[in-house]
């Protein structure tokens, strides 16, 4: 009986943990040192909303580390543009 209850409630607990993490700002600190866009593997933009008043940019670097960037910084805007152009070019070649 306990096994059945655990099977029912564990997936729910995992979903609730993920939802609660997404209902707040994901970035506490932002990376301030400029770097080349070739080090970016993935890029996520989270628009501001009821969960967080700030827009957030989270990049996953080629070494696996996730870093938050300040979308107001000029160098960040430039890096994002270069990354998006590179991604678009790669998709056109496929």
Indicate the topology.
Blueprint: H1 2-22, E1 40-46, E2 56-61, E3 66-69, H2 74-93
Antiparallel strand pairs: 1-2, 2-3
Pfam families: IL8
Keywords: Chemotaxis, Cytokine, Disulfide bond, Inflammatory response, Secreted, Signal
Main location: secreted
Please tell me how large the radius of gyration is. Answer: 18 Å
- Give the % helix: 40-55%
Order of helices and strands: HEEEH
Strand order in the sheet with the most strands: 1-2-3
Strand content: 15-25%
Architecture overview:
The protein has 94 residues and is α+β, with helices and mostly antiparallel strands. It has one domain: OB fold (Dihydrolipoamide Acetyltransferase, E2P). It is 44% helix and 18% strand. The protein has 2 helices and 3 strands, in the order αβββα. The longest helix has 21 residues. The N terminus is likely disordered.
Which key features would you list for this structure?
single chain, about 90 residues, alpha+beta, OB fold (Dihydrolipoamide Acetyltransferase, E2P), 2 helices, about 20% strand, disordered N terminus
Summarize the model shown.
The chain has about 90 residues and is an alpha+beta fold.
């Amino acid at each position: 009986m306990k096994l059945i209850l655990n099977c029912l409630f564990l997936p729910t607990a995992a979903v609730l943990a993920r939802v609660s993490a997404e209902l707040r700002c994901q970035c506490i600190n932002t990376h301030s040192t400029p770097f080349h866009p070739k080090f970016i593997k993935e890029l996520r933009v989270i628009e501001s909303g009821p969960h967080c008043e700030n827009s957030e940019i989270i990049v996953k670097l080629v070494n696996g580390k996730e870093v938050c960037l300040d979308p107001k910084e000029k160098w960040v805007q430039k890096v994002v543009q270069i990354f998006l152009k590179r991604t678009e070019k790669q998709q056109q070649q496929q």
